């Protein structure tokens, strides 16, 4: 029994079975000839699969390209009425949207015009459950594609219309909350980037305010290799402000792995400004003692070398004495705080140097020598603390919103499973 068959069997007895072709008209698409200009730019919206995979909402209102009436009639394209369900059927299978205005698609779709328009929103959510069956029925060597006959033959288990409408309303409400939270999160991240730029180029004066910009108060600034910076700030290479810059275990690290022992960091554990405490590997205490040069201490900065080079985090107290694999380790001197230095390296000022100076863009590999040459700034200790505090406040708001988003996504996932299988009935809400 397939995964989808098990899903169908789990639905309530009062839900009815249909074939896809029994609940709506299945419509394919097409592409007018690019060699005939008159077939294009005619005002009829024309959708490609890529527009659905990047669509932030359920509904699609406009398209990147339009075709003319001649383009519609002279190709395999068909005009879909509003409130149709557009479903991609080639390469990326199962991306979907509901069109708010009549539009056509290219040949990468098997769209559905429901016979009962009230079922459209429910069917939109149901596509998530249908995707594995679409993949199973698809064929092709270059890319997978499901035919119209195979798509139409897919079995569906559908609740009565009133139930379907209520289920869709609940899921739509959660989707709206998720989109709203995503928008707030994006705004907070943009605000943090703006704040970072100001804090790391203007700093904070003795009154706790951002300094005026260089054009507003040129006497407060000096020219440096990084541009105009406050006169009070020192500027130098990272090695000038660290007692140690080295790399973690690089020679056959897997030879040291054991089931339990000393947590050992890999690149995947180092995120921008924090440690991801999952998927650790472990080495024995004896190996950790032997590999003492790559041991990490509280306050060390760990920096990713490959994949996302420059991404850095500070080692918290609970991981003092642990080890790491193929990660750069920097131990700041007392004159510069770990948190400030980590923020600098993660900022566009630090990351920009990493990306321009790494040993090869194709490999995205950042080495110890380049790390030592990284140009950094050093305000006074008091100013470092104020700058770090403001960055932390901005990051805390982002993390709060991210936790809410994760919670909403988890709720949506659980509710989708419960509602689309009928495990959680909505009849009491009708």
Describe it.
- This protein has 430 residues and is α+β, with helices and mostly antiparallel strands.
- The chain has three domains: 3-158, Adenine-n6-DNA-methyltransferase TaqI, Chain A, domain 2 (Alpha-Beta Complex), CATH 3.90.220.20; 160-232 and 380-430, Helix Hairpins (Orthogonal Bundle), CATH 1.10.287.1120; 234-378, Adenine-n6-DNA-methyltransferase TaqI, Chain A, domain 2.
- 36% of the residues lie in helices and 23% in strands.
- The chain contains twelve helices and 24 strands.
- It has a four-stranded antiparallel beta sheet with strand order 14-23-20-21. It has a four-stranded mixed beta sheet with strand order 15-19-16-22.
- β17 and β18 (274-275) form a beta hairpin.
- α5 crosses α7.
- The longest helix has 41 residues, at 161-201.
- The chain starts with a helix and ends in a 10-residue tail after the last helix.
- The model is unreliable at 359-363 (pLDDT under 50).
Fourth-tier CATH superfamily name of the largest domain: DNA methylase specificity domains
Structural class: alpha+beta
Please name the CATH architecture of the largest domain.
Alpha-Beta Complex
Shape, per Cα inertia axes: elongated
| CATH class placement of the largest domain | Alpha Beta
Number of domains: 3
The pLDDT mean sits at 95
Oligomer: single chain
**Number of helical regions:** 12
Question: What fold name goes in the CATH topology slot of the largest domain?
Answer: Adenine-n6-DNA-methyltransferase TaqI, Chain A, domain 2
What is the helix fraction of residues, given as a range? 25-40%
Low-confidence spans: 359-363
Proportion of strand residues: 15-25%
Rg, Cα atoms, Å: 28 Å
Number of strands: 24
- Strand sequence of the main sheet, in spatial order? 14-23-20-21
* Sheet with the most strands, sense and barrel status: 4 strands, antiparallel
Distance between the termini: 34 Å
